[in-house]
Amino acid sequence: MNKGSNTTSDTTAGLTRRRMLQLGSGLTAAGLWPCLSAGSATLEGKAVRNGRIKQSIVQWCFELFGGKWNVEQTARVARELGCRGVELVAPQHYPTLQQYGLTCAIGSINMDPDPPFLKGFNNPAYWPQVVQATRQAIDAAAAHGVPSVICFTGTARGTSPSPRANRSQRRRRPPLRRGFKQVIGHAEKQKVTLCLEMLNTGTTPTR
Question: What region does 65 belong to: left with phi over 0, alpha with psi -120 to 50, or beta?
Fold first, then answer.
């Protein structure tokens, strides 16, 4: 069989195998794949059956893969599925979630144009930017009833493009806790929980 063939064995009512994999990669993790129709790739019914578990979905999975939905599209589908919220959205999108009657259990920080996890508290050179972004995220979370905000140690790529320089910086880098202390008090004051995602690359112990 030719790789480029368009026979019925490669497609299901117009939905290609490649397309199904693209959709499934994001939706399987969220438990939403069974809700798609193989023929039309449209939603069929609610994913939430009895509401005993408060289900939500993570925005970035749908933004980067498949149909590449924006926040409003994700929110609309989440509501149609019966989900309670959309997670890890930037603060500017909280009003959109509220328009759809959704919540956000954990918000992200805005480090545009970089992804939020690249530059973190593992490099003092980035502390001014990271601290400002984290404080702004804390304030927005408090204002919109979001109980927690994610924060990051940062990666080696966000430290230096040179592996040798990374090793040198890790040896002389101040402990991470000195960086986190700059935002912990503010989070406590605003009654927002900081959730640390500890990436394995380019991090140091917090001792």
Answer: beta
Q: What are the residues whose beta carbons fall under 8 Å from the beta carbon of 201, sequence distance 6 or more?
A: 155, 156, 157
Q: For residue range 137-176, list pLDDT tens digits in order.
A: 999 999 999 999 999 988 866 554 445 555 545 544 566 8
Do the domain assignments include residue 161?
Answer: yes
185: domain range?
53-197
Considering the domain boundaries, does residue 77 fall inside one? Answer: yes
Count of structural domains within the chain: 1
Alpha-carbon gap, residue 86 to 105, rounded angstroms: 8
Q: How many CA atoms lie within 13 A of 2 on its CB side?
A: 4
User: Helices 127-144 & 176-190, crossing angle to 10 degrees?
Assistant: 20
Could you list the beta-strand ranges (E) of the chain.
11-12, 15-16, 56-58, 85-87, 106-107, 148-152, 193-197
Global model pTM greater than 0.85: no
